[in-house]
């Protein structure tokens, strides 16, 4: 996946009331990305329509050329065959363009931008005004050679690629005095398109590229001992559900809680993150 150019990471070191310039930058990136994604969708739609028209013409000309050749003269049938050959070549060319767009589509960063905007705008009302928000937001796509973590053999001599990018790392103090370190990563598995022969029919069929995305949240929460009783706090044995996310591992040492949770989804939404934080807070003992 590509966006056309690299986006400079957004470095944050401001108090909650001074985050508007960062929010404006994220909105600008989201708008640029939306234009690219919409243009790609429009091009795919146009090519698909052209391909359907040419396939239809091939069928009509083939049948019509056969009837004309029988009833009038065979020369018309051969002329039709030549025309069909050209149309089949052009339809194949369109098919290759569609497959190329399938293999390397632009990244849809709308979900990432929406979550980053929410963290900087809505979450700031739950932050301490005396402490700065510190961290980095990287809106570049995950599917980049620099983020390739491993490969594995796939079907029909293909190579399955696995990518991982940590795109958000924020540290804040909440209004209740708890200190939160939040890291969000995206993992993408890409199985390239390939021709596959049916085990029963023996026919070769094109299997398009397949992508699966996983969102990973790593959290460190340092409890404020004035409001929370860490000695009475007990986390369940992993794995356990925190909202829609599955907590894979969790540890507690004194006032500090660390955990990692995952969800199979194209985007991590603000609602998912809120549900996760609420589920964690329900397990923390108050004084």
Write the layout of secondary structure elements.
Layout: E1 10-14, H1 20-71, H2 74-103, H3 110-121, E2 133-137, E3 148-153, E4 159-173, E5 179-191, E6 194-197, E7 204-207, E8 210-222, E9 240-242, E10 245-253, E11 256-264, H4 270-281
Antiparallel strand pairs: 1-2, 2-4, 3-4, 4-5, 5-8, 6-7, 8-11, 9-10, 10-11
Describe what this molecule looks like in 3D.
Strand 6 and strand 7 form a beta hairpin. The protein has a domain of 184 residues. 37% of the residues lie in helices and 30% in strands. 18% of the residues are buried. The model has no long low-confidence stretch (mean pLDDT 87). The chain starts with 9 loop residues before the first strand and ends in a 6-residue tail after the last helix. The chain is of the alpha+beta class and 287 residues long.
């Amino acid at each position: 996946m590509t966006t056309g150019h690299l986006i400079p990471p957004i470095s944050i070191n401001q108090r909650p009331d001074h985050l508007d310039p960062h929010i404006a930058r994220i909105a600008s990136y989201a708008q640029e990305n939306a234009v690219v994604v919409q243009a790609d969708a429009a091009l795919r739609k146009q090519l698909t329509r052209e391909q359907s028209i040419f396939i239809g013409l091939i069928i009509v000309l083939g049948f019509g050329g056969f009837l004309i050749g029988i009833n009038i003269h065979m020369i018309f049938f051969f002329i039709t065959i030549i025309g069909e050959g050209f149309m089949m070549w052009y339809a194949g060319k369109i098919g290759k363009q569609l497959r190329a767009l399938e293999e390397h589509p632009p990244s849809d960063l709308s979900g990432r931008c929406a979550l980053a905007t929410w963290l900087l705008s809505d979450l700031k009302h739950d932050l301490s005004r005396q402490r700065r928000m510190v961290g980095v937001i990287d809106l570049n796509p995950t599917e980049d050679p620099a983020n390739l973590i491993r490969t594995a053999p796939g079907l029909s001599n293909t190579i399955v690629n696995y990518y991982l990018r940590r795109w958000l790392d924020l540290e804040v103090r909440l209004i209740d005095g708890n200190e939160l370190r939040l890291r969000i990563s995206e993992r993408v598995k890409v199985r390239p398109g390939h021709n596959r022969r049916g085990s029963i029919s023996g026919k070769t069929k094109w299997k398009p590229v397949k992508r699966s995305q996983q969102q990973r949240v790593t959290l460190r929460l340092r409890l404020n001992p004035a409001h929370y009783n860490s000695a009475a706090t007990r986390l369940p044995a992993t794995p356990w559900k925190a909202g829609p996310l599955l907590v894979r591992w969790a540890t507690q040492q004194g006032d500090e809680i660390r955990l990692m949770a995952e969800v199979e989804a194209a985007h991590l939404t603000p609602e998912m993150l809120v549900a996760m934080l609420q589920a964690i807070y329900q397990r923390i003992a108050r004084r």
